[in-house]
Amino acid sequence: MDEMLRLDGVTAGYGGLTVLRDVDLSVREGEVVALLGANGAGKSTLLAVASGLLRPRSGRVRVDGVDVTGWPAERLVRRGLAHVPERRRIFGSMTVLENLLLGAHVRFGREPRAAIDLDLERVLLLFPQLRGRGEQIAGSLSGGEQQMLAIGRGLMSRPRILLLDEPSLGLAPLMVREICRVIAGLPEQGCAVLLVEQNARAGLEVSTRGYVLEVGRVVKEGTACQLGEDPEVREAYLGARREARSAAAVSR
Ligand code: ATP
After folding, report:
1. Structural element, H or E, at residue 180
2. Are 10 and 2 in contact (CB under 8 A)?
3. Does domain 3-80+159-251 correspond to CATH entry 3.90.550.10?
4. Could you please report the per-residue DSSP string of 58-116?
5. What is the distance between the alpha carbons of residues 95 and 211, in angstroms, rounded to a whole number?
6. Residue 86 burial (C-beta neighbours within 10 Å; 0-12, 13-18, 19+)
7. How many Å lie between the centroid of ligand 1 and the Cα of residue 85?
8. Nearest Cα to 196, choosing from 86, 68, 102?
């Protein structure tokens, strides 16, 4: 399987603050990889480095085998990498259709319009909730629909690797399930995923593998099953001990 994304020994931060320390990580074709970690562990920073928004101080970033360290974000989009940042940064005063087409801006003039329209249809098949809403102002969509729009916009660049930052944040459980269903199906459509999730349970459910980041370092990695059964992961991120305690309290 080809490696769609690879970070080797990445150290990065902001000004005097070092956030990531010597991070190695990879996402292969056909995979959804979860990136777990507490608030401030450096997950969003890792995505920023992978997508060209932040230049690492040391280490290398490779996309589909090509060393892209230091490439600007726009060039990486053309190379097949899309980044859907936290808090669904859609353009609220523009329509749903305009938002989706913006996602394809790197393709206009390079590809026939029919190819872009085909992907528009693909996004509407994935998120039927957006169908018929093309002229609606994006800011008037519900939180969950805005998240769908943000992911849809990312997919409109036809990425082979998609970086998703906390797609479940603030959404109702039913919506989380719906979005997870779509994420889990993306590798089949030729798009690998690196998924940052605070909702570790949902993250591991849709993933094949995962990494745990603590204070900027990878402290664990494994298959989603291995991580889901790891006592430390269960206690820190899956609330296992809390659940055991409350079960004990109920049985008393
Ligand atoms: P969260 O789940 O809260 O988003 P995270 O694991 O994604 O956490 P980051 O957002 O990567 O963590 O933040 C890691 C550290 O870097 C934090 O201490 C944060 O305050 C700091 N940081 C993030 N972005 C910037 C920035 N643009 N300038 C300076 N410091 C930043």
Report:
1. helix 173-185
2. no
3. no
4. EEEEEETTEE-TT--HHHHHHTTEEEE-TT----TTSBHHHHHHHHTTTTBTTB-HHHH
5. 37
6. middle
7. 13
8. 86
Going 115 to 121 to 124 to 130, the CA torsion angle's sign is: positive
Give the residues surrounding ligand 1 with Cβ less than 6 Å away.
14, 17, 19, 37, 39-45, 198
Nearest 5°: the CA angle 249, 251, 252 is 65
d(Cα 119, Cα 160) in Å, to the nearest integer?
13
pLDDT per residue rounded down to tens, the chain (252 residues): 699 999 999 999 999 899 999 999 999 999 999 999 988 999 999 999 999 999 999 999 999 999 999 999 999 999 999 999 887 678 989 999 999 999 998 888 888 898 899 999 999 999 999 998 988 999 999 888 999 999 999 999 999 999 999 998 888 888 898 999 999 999 999 999 999 988 888 899 999 999 999 999 999 999 999 999 999 999 888 876 555 554 455 444
Q: Are strands 161-165 and 192-196 parallel, antiparallel or unpaired?
A: parallel
Query: For the whole model, what pTM was predicted?
Result: 0.91
Instruction: State whether residue 209 is helix, strand or coil.
Output: strand
- The two three-digit tokens of residue 15, written as one number: 């000004």
In this structure, the residue with its CA closest to atom 11 of ligand 1 is: 42
For the chain, give every domain's residue range. Answer: 3-80+159-251, 91-157
Ligand 1, atom nearest to 46 Cα: 11
The secondary element (H helix, E strand) that includes residue 1 is none
